[in-house]
Amino acid sequence: MSNGLNGCGEVVDLPISNTHHMAVLQAQDSSHTISLNKLARCGDLYGASAPMQQLFQMIGKVAPTSANVLIAGESGTGKELVAQAIHQLSREQEQPFVALNCSAVSPQLIEAELFGHERGSFTGAVRMQKGCFERADGGTLFLDEVTEMSLDMQVKLLRVLETSRFCRIGAEEETEVKVRVIAATNRDPVEAMKSGILRSDLFYRLSVFPLDLPPLRERGEDIRLLAGLFLDQLNEEDGRNRVFSKASWRLLNEYNWPGNVRELKNVVHRAYIMADHELDLLPAVNPNRSMVSEQIGDCVTVQLGSKLADAEQRLIYATLGHCGGNKTLTAEVLGVSLKTLYNRLNEYQAKLFLGDVIPHARPYGTQSRNQ
Ligand SMILES: Nc1ncnc2c1ncn2[C@@H]1O[C@H](COP(=O)(O)OP(=O)(O)OP(=O)(O)O)[C@@H](O)[C@H]1O
After folding, report:
1. By the 8 A CB rule, do 131 and 143 touch?
2. Ligand 1 center–CA 168 separation, angstroms
3. pLDDT at residue number 255
4. Residue 233 CB less than 6 A away from ligand 1
5. Does the keyword RNA-binding apply (predicted)?
6. Residues with Cβ < 8 Å from 24, sequence gap 6 or more?
7. Which of 55, 103, 262 to mutate to test the pocket of ligand 1 (most atoms within 8 A of CB)?
8. Closest CA to 197 of 358, 328, 312, 310
9. Distance 316 CA to ligand 1 centre (A)
10. What is the Å distance from ligand 1's center to 45 Cα?
11. DSSP sequence for 133-194
């Protein structure tokens, strides 16, 4: 599957001892032995499942071109890693890779972030500042959450994509750059376009080469392989030999992973910190079980004494699972806007990073996933 460009999609040696890794995986459950020989790598992305192999091939094809790429996928599925892999495999790999999360910058500041400003162009502009386009000149600009940009800014972005020229705020002369733009969104881009959040001209300009990242729950054996990989990386750092408990091994494939690979990585890390030898993932997924209700069939019951925010999070995760991960449908069922749903999911992920309590959710209720 090599494409001659550092072999994206090739089966590679992990940055860990394979023998050690196999030992860890085999120790879990002899009926669930996974051969790491199947694990492929593309940049810093790992995967063995069919959709990931396909994705690696697509990355290998588009990387050496100058095409703009639009990456769509749920939060935590690895969109930034895909953008980095494309850059690393491009002819411009020695040039800068600059990333900007468009939802993290206020609408007032995003223009200055993108295009820079001249000295004295607004209060506080004490010196000239280059923007992301200039800093990425010759290389790649990764625009994460591009659909969160205002429609006015989308017009300005489109113009740069078409002319390669822009004006720093307060400048009289235009600046010319050669930048490849890779954009990403947590939303379904076609839905975003239909609902007027994403301008159609920008959509068509960006999606010369669209890439869809599958949610982790649709990647079958990748869940255990990635969990094993993350555990091995932690063991390697500490010189330890911790393993998953049998219940954890099962949970890996039963849980729905709404926060995708990011959540898996955090959960393994959290369980690793708590473990003496065997990792117990259940409390790591659900660190405060006493505050958490049971989910039975299609019902979510909430224990009296729960915080309203915890109950809301639980209902959102359960509905998301019930809707098969379809966020538009989930928002409809819950009677909230898609934006509100995304805001909540982003908040939960931020909490996850800060180590806050995550109410246990098995969004698929009684459904369990088979490999
Ligand atoms: N296939 C993979 N192999 C190894 N690590 C992965 C993989 N996919 C994601 N990760 C890890 O998961 C975390 C989230 O990845 P990343 O930031 O690329 O996701 P994202 O889709 O851009 O998220 P967001 O939409 O929230 O910005 C990172 O720590 C990344 O290293």
Report:
1. no
2. 32
3. 86
4. no
5. no
6. 228, 231, 232, 235, 241, 243, 244
7. 262
8. 328
9. 22
10. 8
11. HHHTTTSEEEEETGGGS-HHHHHHHHHHHHHSEE--BT-SS-EE---EEEEEESS-HHHHHH
Report how far residue 289's alpha carbon sits from residue 312's, in angstroms, rounded to the nearest whole number.
16
Ligand 1 atom nearest residue 213's Cα: 21
How far apart CA 360 and CA 298 sit, in angstroms, is: 15
DSSP letter (8 states) at residue 53: H
CA of 44 from ligand 1 middle (Å) equals 9
Which residues touch 350 (CB under 8 Å, ≥6 apart)?
A: none
175-176 and 165-166: which strand pairing? antiparallel
In ligand 1, which atom is closest to the CA atom of 144?
27
Q: Which residues contact 228 (CB under 8 A, 6 or more apart)?
A: 21, 24, 25, 34, 36
Distance 82 CA to ligand 1 centre (A): 9
This prediction has a pTM of 0.74
Are the C-beta atoms of 116 and 158 separated by less than 8 Å? no
Q: Determine the Cα angle at 107 with ends 106 and 113, to 5°.
A: 75
Which atom, in ligand 1's list, is nearest to the CA of 47? Answer: 1
Taking the C-alpha atoms of residue 146 and residue 239, their distance in angstroms, rounded to an integer, is 41
Do you know the residue count of the chain?
A: 371
- Residues facing 143 on adjacent strands: 100, 183
Q: Which atom of ligand 1 is the closest one to the Cα of 80?
A: 18
Q: What is the mean pLDDT of residues 110-125?
A: 86
Q: Which domains does the chain have, with CATH numbers?
A: 68-212 (3.40.50.300), 286-364 (1.10.10.60)
pLDDT at 37: 60
**Which amino acid is present at 369?**
R
In the chain, which ranges are continuous DSSP H helix? 18-28, 50-62, 79-88, 107-115, 132-135, 151-163, 189-194, 200-206, 222-238, 246-254, 260-274, 281-285, 308-322, 327-334, 338-354
How far is Cα of residue 267 from the mean position of the Cα atoms in its chain? 15
125 CA to middle of ligand 1, Å? 35
Give me the pLDDT at residue 14, please.
40
